[in-house]
Amino acid sequence: MPFTSAESRLAKLRPLDNRQAAEKALARPNNAPCIFERGFSLYFGDPVDRHPDGICTKDVIERISVEHPFPSRHKFYGFHIGMAFAAAAKQISSLGLRCDSTNAKQSCYSGMTPDSFNIALHFVAGDENASVDETRIAHITLSRVYPEGFLERRTALHQRLTDEIQSRTDRANAWKLITDDDDAMLMDWASHSKPWDDYSESEFVKFANWLKSAGPDERHMAAFLCNWDYGLAPLIWIVRQDDCDIATALYVFFGCDPAYHLEFEGDRSRVSHSIEAFDLMMEAKDRMENGFYERSEIYFDTQNDMRIIAKYKPTQRQLDAVLPKNIKPVYEGRRIDRENRFGGLRSPSFVID
User: Fold this and answer.
1) Pick from 305, 289, 214: which is nearest to 246 by CA?
2) CA pseudo-torsion sign 25, 30, 33, 34
3) How many other C-beta atoms can be found within 10 angstroms of the C-beta atom of residue 208?
4) 199: three-class secondary structure by DSSP
5) Does residue 246 contact residue 293 with C-beta atoms inside 8 Å?
6) Helix, strand, coil shares of the chain as percentages rounded to 5?
7) Residue 322: strand, helix, or coil
8) Peptide bond just before 69 cis, omega within 30 deg
9) What's the pLDDT score for residue 198?
């Protein structure tokens, strides 16, 4: 059996071929919704829930896009990348392709192939002095033909699904707008958090109710157990409690990655992402400096975290902007951490981790 390159195999693919054919051409599995290979891109259909007729087409090629640097030796219905308009004109006429747009620097032609696929050609001038005949094919697109109205229905469905996701996201983030009642903020977060795995949504409410009844030692343990990816509401609530131990506040503070935030020098407008972590870090810093945390009964060693910060060679201005001015190397007290199994404290079985 003669050897064929991946490009040769890919060039034989057409819309409506299946994923198995694409994987065979690539000689490797790929479950992505689109596949890219050196100037050759494949786009597949929709899963059942995103198809307007409830049909699974996620393993069916819908569109093929070809551009540089895909080798020019491979032709698609007589056309190849880099082909001059003068050389392509006869085949354009033969297929009856229509001119969709044209100007001095580029033109687009589209129509139907003999085997009933849509084809589109994009010609581009190599330089500003090139004539129309010297423009060359920069992009070839092959796509399936859809039933009348299908694309409009699919667009409407995708927009509706996007709107629903945005609505759920807005509702899940509503807790961030509650600034005058920390308990209400915590419970709103718990009531509308969406679990990733097999958790019941009520597990968040159980955790929040347990947190509200827990003492400062248990809340220190909870800070270790919180999954930050579910939202920072529990940690915000913890650092705002009157009896929050300073060790807990410091654990949360360093969890916000002050080393990353050094470059912003305390300027919120310069923070490009993780703005919530920045806000939480600065709130904990301000509370520490203002003497809010009167309880100091839990052991905490800041020295390793400070060594990490020192590796960034921060300026004094950066340190003053980010670190609490009254921070100490070590805080003595009861040890509550993962290494000693939280000092014998019993963690709730419904902790969301």
Assistant:
1) 289
2) negative
3) 21
4) coil
5) yes
6) 45, 15, 40
7) helix
8) yes
9) 47
Which strands, in side-by-side order, build the sheet including 118-124? 34-37, 40-44, 61-67, 136-143, 118-124, 106-112, 98-102
pLDDT band, residue 161 (cuts 50/70/90): very high
pLDDT in tens, 13-54: 999 999 999 999 988 777 777 777 889 999 999 999 999 999
* φ, ψ at 130 (rounded to 5°): -70, 145
Sorted by where each begins, the domain ranges of the chain are 6-145, 171-344
Enter the DSSP assignment of 47: -
Closest CA to 37 of 18, 14, 62, 10: 10
280 to 236, 250, 258, 334: CA distances (angstroms) = 7, 11, 11, 25
User: How far is it, in rounded angstroms, from Cα 174 to Cα 178?
Assistant: 7
Query: What is the biggest distance separating any 2 CA atoms in the chain, rounded to whole angstroms?
Result: 86
Mean model confidence pLDDT for the chain = 91
> Alpha-carbon distance 252 to 234, whole Å?
11
What gap in Å lies between CA 44 and CA 59, rounded to an integer?
6
The residue whose two tokens read 């800041």 is 302
Counting Cβ atoms within 10 Å, is residue 331 exposed (0-12), middle (13-18) or buried (19+)? Answer: middle
pTM over 0.85: no
Give residue 91's pLDDT: 97
The answer, yes or no, to whether residue 217 has pLDDT greater than 80, is: yes
- Cβ 239 vs Cβ 247: under 8 Å: no
Q: Is 137 helix (H, G, I), strand (E, B) or coil?
A: strand
